[in-house]
Description:
The protein has 409 residues and is mainly alpha-helical. It contains 18 helices and no strands. It has two domains: 1-184, Up-down Bundle (Growth Hormone, Chain: A); 198-409, Growth Hormone, Chain: A. It has helices at 2-6, 8-24, 30-37, 41-62, 65-69, 71-91, 95-123, 132-157, 164-182, 205-236, 242-262, 268-292, 295-322, 329-343, 346-358, 360-391, 393-397, 402-406. Helices cover 80% and strands 0% of the residues. Its main location: membrane. It is a multi-pass membrane protein. The chain crosses the membrane at residues 12-33, 39-62, 74-92, 98-121, 133-158, 164-186, 207-233, 239-259, 271-289, 295-314, 335-358, 364-383. Pfam families: MFS_1. It comes from Mycolicibacterium chubuense (strain NBB4).
Amino acid sequence: xxxxxxxxxxxxxxxxxxxxxxxxxxxxxxxxxxxxxxxxxxxxxxxxxxxxxxxxxxxxxxxxxxxxxxxxxxxxxxxxxxxxxxxxxxxxxxxxxxxxxxxxxxxxxxxxxxxxxxxxxxxxxxxxxxxxxxxxxxxxxxxxxxxxxxxxxxxxxxxxxxxxxxxxxxxxxxxxxxxxxxxxxxxxxxxxxxxxxxxxxxxxxxxxxxxxxxxxxxxxxxxxxxxxxxxxxxxxxxxxxxxxxxxxxxxxxxxxxxxxxxxxxxxxxxxxxxxxxxxxxxxxxxxxxxxxxxxxxxxxxxxxxxxxxxxxxxxxxxxxxxxxxxxxxxxxxxxxxxxxxxxxxxxxxxxxxxxxxxxxxxxxxxxxxxxxxxxxxxxxxxxxxxxxxxxxxxxxxxxxxxxxxxxxx
Length: 409
């Protein structure tokens, strides 16, 4: 038992990553599903976006359950939804079935996002306690990145392109269930069941608005690359290699994960501003990639945008948490994640509608410009507030208070 306990954090991190792999697994397959079921980019974006609905429902309905009934039962429930999603995708031969599969995938991710993060941190041995949050981040974002990479390689080079990836994921999820069953419970089981409350305390509202808008911009871009990158590759650049599509979708998550880990000690105020600036650069590169049909620029835009998204999202949450009373951080974090998951659904559907009206190239450039403008607004708001805090008489007369003010984006 002590031997298993020693590896509990690693086992839970594996389970976390295995579940998140399934949420992005269909990315390189949307074009094949479209050819088989006769739908185009708009339907692809709707299928992708239904995932966010499942995530939001799970976050709100089950967000507090693991504190009451324990981490393991809730994680096993998330695994059950992941298994159901993979089975539905294996058997799917119509768009409604794909929608059901995506909702089930979203439910699994919504359950795992908070519960597995808490479980990984709680299971960390004393020597690894300071790295536990980073391990959870890498498991989460790394799993999201591995999904399209794994599926792209299997779709391009292995038989049965619409089946094998989900069969492999079933194996990964089965091993995840074994891992969860093997580790001891980490929760003290307190509180009571109920829907997760959403709210923002008055002292954090200004900071929350700016941080949430930056998170919205960043997550809109991750949604774009996850849902539409293969269509950009084929429709704008004329490249139909599914493995390459998987690499492009993977690169934005890989860049985000690395940046979140490396920037975790950076001042939140400065980090959100830098993240917004990097995101603007990424969108300029994306617009150029689509305008000039450049593969290298498309890959570069994914990497740069991932860096901006990772920095602004993670440090924005830290900035809001700094100003939030400890007993209200769960509801504030949930509100922040609701904004993020709305961002990966509605803008992507808008991209699908625009693509039908204007074509992929024009709609993609327009999307990049819109995100750049939103990020620029956030950056301007941060700079203006920083100057106001620096110039205010209270900041000059009470220098001991200025570091707290400096942390606010």
